[in-house]
């Protein structure tokens, strides 16, 4: 019985420690990209010198996500709602990628994993997660309530560009 309680206590402490580290990392990242509020979401666009260095797959997959009907539905009017609640803006970030160094993602993943977030002066709130699987070429939205990925519609014409650029 004592061992179970000890294991539970250590598990809870580990979860809080990881959460604290992620909060600090998110704070550092949020402060690095904070800008004045703008009407458009923050999506990092490459300048001409960066474009030569970075793989275009990241930008194409970002386009697949941001042009999907579900993304548009979630972000329609979001800027005004965030500002009304005292926020600065909202944006989308690439958290995981099959090529994290090349795509400037935070970590390795078999899929391209995106997070839609709202930026406030004291925090960053993640509001939605999307994932593009390059193997089956399907876009998914993460359903947190059921802990599963749900396939969603997107512009399939972008797959032709994806196949040409991301071999």
Task: Provide the descriptors you would attach to this structure in a database record.
single chain, 167 residues, alpha+beta, 7 helices
Radius of gyration over all CA atoms, rounded:
18 Å
What percentage of residues falls in helices of 4 or more residues? 40-55%
Can you tell me the overall shape? globular
The strand count comes to 6
The percent range for strand residues is: 15-25%
Estimate nothing, just give the exact number of structural domains: 2
> Quick one: biggest sheet?
6 strands, mixed
- Give the termini separation: 54 Å
- Helical region count? 7
**Class by SSE composition:** alpha+beta
Unreliable runs: 26-54
Q: Report the average pLDDT across residues.
A: 75
Please write the string of helix (H) and strand (E) elements.
HHHHHEHEEEEEH
Side by side, the strands of the main sheet go 2-1-3-4-5-6
Give a brief outline of the structure.
By secondary structure, the chain is an alpha+beta fold. Helices cover 45% and strands 24% of the residues. The chain has a six-stranded mixed sheet.
Structure description:
With 167 residues, the chain is an alpha+beta fold. The chain folds into two domains: 33 residues; 129 residues, no CATH class. 45% of the residues lie in helices and 24% in strands. The protein contains seven helices and six strands. A six-stranded mixed sheet has the order 2-1-3-4-5-6. The chain is globular and about 55 Å long. The termini are far apart.
């Amino acid at each position: 019985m004592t061992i179970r309680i000890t294991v539970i206590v250590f598990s809870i402490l580990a979860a809080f420690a990881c959460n604290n580290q992620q909060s600090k990392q998110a704070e550092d990242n949020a402060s690095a990209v904070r800008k004045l509020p703008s009407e458009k979401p923050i999506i990092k666009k490459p300048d001409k010198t960066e474009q030569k260095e970075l793989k275009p797959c990241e930008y194409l997959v970002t386009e697949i996500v941001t042009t999907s009907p579900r993304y548009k539905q979630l972000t329609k009017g979001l800027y005004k709602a965030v500002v009304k609640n005292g926020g600065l803006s909202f944006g989308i970030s690439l958290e995981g990628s099959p090529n994290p160094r090349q795509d400037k993602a935070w970590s390795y993943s078999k899929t391209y994993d995106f997070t839609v977030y709202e930026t406030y002066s004291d925090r960053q709130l993640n509001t939605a997660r999307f994932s593009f699987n390059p193997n089956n070429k399907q876009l998914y939205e993460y359903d947190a309530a059921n802990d599963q990925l749900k396939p969603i519609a997107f512009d399939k014409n972008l797959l032709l560009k994806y196949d040409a650029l991301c071999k």
